[in-house]
Amino acid sequence: MWIANSYGKINLGLHVLERLPTGYHTIETGFCFIEWNDRFEVCPADHFSLSLSTDNIPAGEENLITKAYRAFEMYVGLKQHYSFSVQKNMPPGAGLGGGSSNAALTFRILNKLEGAGLTDDELIDLSRNLGADIPFFIKGKTGIGTGLGHSVEPMPIQPDAWILCVYPGFESSTAEAYHNCIPNPTPEFSLKKVLLEEEASEWQYLLQNDLEPTVIARYDIVGNIKDQLIDFGAVYASMTGSGSTVFGIFNQDFVAIQAYESFYKLGFSPNLTRPGFIPDYGIYRKD
Description:
By secondary structure, this protein is an alpha+beta fold. The protein has helices spanning 64-75, 98-113, 120-126, 134-139, 174-179, 191-197, 200-206, 212-218, 220-231, 253-265, and strands at 2-19, 25-45, 49-52, 81-87, 143-147, 151-154, 162-167, 236-239, 246-250, 269-273, 284-285.
């Protein structure tokens, strides 16, 4: 058996720059990691199978793990098959990139177990039609995502502070968030400059997620959670991606822990990430 963790992400700012004729959008966003993760267990098997710890997420051909497995099998080939058992901790439709992270880990696991020796760029080529965030998770480095999100320029933007994520308990539609957003090709502030040169305490005035207003207009609880994070002592708070999760940046551990406990007591699903967090991308053999 082989075990590995599939980590989530948050978006530090998100500029929607242009709506393309294809219906997709060009964006600019900062990707960084959170400790919220799903747990993979993989064993050799006579045929592929996928077992999830929840019935709320389909495990059939529409699942990104299955799609990644099929893509690897089709374009690279497999010497044998594998069964995947996944403990799902990240909620779906939460803006955490859980599905894309799962697909990226599936590619990396198969690449290792099959001894295929594919580079990160070759794995990214396999993922082109699966999900925009997958290249970020394959590379495994924080950075600025541009274009459709596939291109990520590595940059040291992981906050040296506590990150508290709060899931409000429902999914947010990515398609709906983008459809209702008005693109702005000339943002007032440079996202890259803000993330690299400004303290997190200044982000509240300089950094924004263009999808946030459209989601808050539909789900006011997202805005309420953001306000509560600030009230609890966050120096910056924002929705991640197209929602529905909201996160806050905290400089002090005891303030972050108190906020975590407060949201937990209120019935939310919070998750706390340590300062300067670096995900463990190892794939380990379990005896």
